[in-house]
Amino acid sequence: MAKIKAVTVHGGHNPSGRIACGASDYIDESREDRIITKKVVRLLKKNGIKAYDCTVNNGTSQRDVLKKICAKCNSKVRDIDISIHFNASDHQRVPDGKTTGTEVWVRDTSAVKGEVARRICNQIAKVGFKNRGVKTTSDLWFLNKTKKPALLIEVCFVSDPDDAILYKKHKDDIAKAIVQAVINYNRVH
Ligand SMILES: [Zn+2]
């Protein structure tokens, strides 16, 4: 496949406090997915890659948010679609020095999406998060309904204080890690 010349990025849920907003614990998913999205869009552009923020702020349900996100993504001329999420599990009361970590979801690991997903996991792991790796599913609406290769990044866990501590120190590094994965992909294609 050719180089990645254009990318859409979005925060995966409605805004904080509304219906269909993201998870909230040590990290507020909806607030932070937008922060990471903006940083990634800015950095992609800085590196000569077209980037569009396809975040949706007016969904009436989770399905409606997803429909609107996919419609926005599909309206753009682009090579890949990236969704920014944060994971959630049981609330961990105290830090234990170990993050729960990062993972990236794709429909399958073929071609560009598998390679970029793996690169993103590896780059975010370099920031210090446990690398949970690339995971596949045919059950995520966003991955099924965009017409281009789609990746869903679960940056780290909102429910783990170790993840939150590391995340808060390294927001810029996480955005850089995602963009570096795209740049490194382009270097070898
Ligand atoms: Zn989410």
Question: Can you put this structure into words, describing what you see?
Answer:
This protein is an alpha/beta fold and 189 residues long. 42% of the residues lie in helices and 20% in strands. The chain is built from 6 helices and 6 strands; from the N terminus they run βαβαββαβαβαα. A 6-stranded mixed sheet has the order 2-1-3-6-4-5. The relative contact order is 0.21. The mean pLDDT is 97. Bound molecules: zinc ion (ZN). The site of zinc ion has 5 residues, from loops.
Sum this structure up briefly.
The chain is α/β, with parallel strands linked by helices and 189 residues long.
Using only C-alpha atoms, the radius of gyration works out to: 15 Å
- How many distinct helices? 6
The coarse overall form would be: globular
From the N-terminal CA to the C-terminal CA, the straight-line distance is 7 Å
Biggest sheet architecture: 6 strands, mixed
Summarize the helices and strands and which ones pair or pack:
Layout: E1 6-11, H1 29-46, E2 50-53, H2 62-74, E3 80-87, E4 102-106, H3 111-127, E5 131-136, H4 141-145, E6 150-157, H5 161-169, H6 171-187
Parallel strand pairs: 1-2, 1-3, 3-6, 4-5
Antiparallel strand pairs: 4-6
Key structural traits:
6 strands, 189 residues, 6-stranded mixed beta sheet, alpha/beta, binds zinc ion, globular, single chain
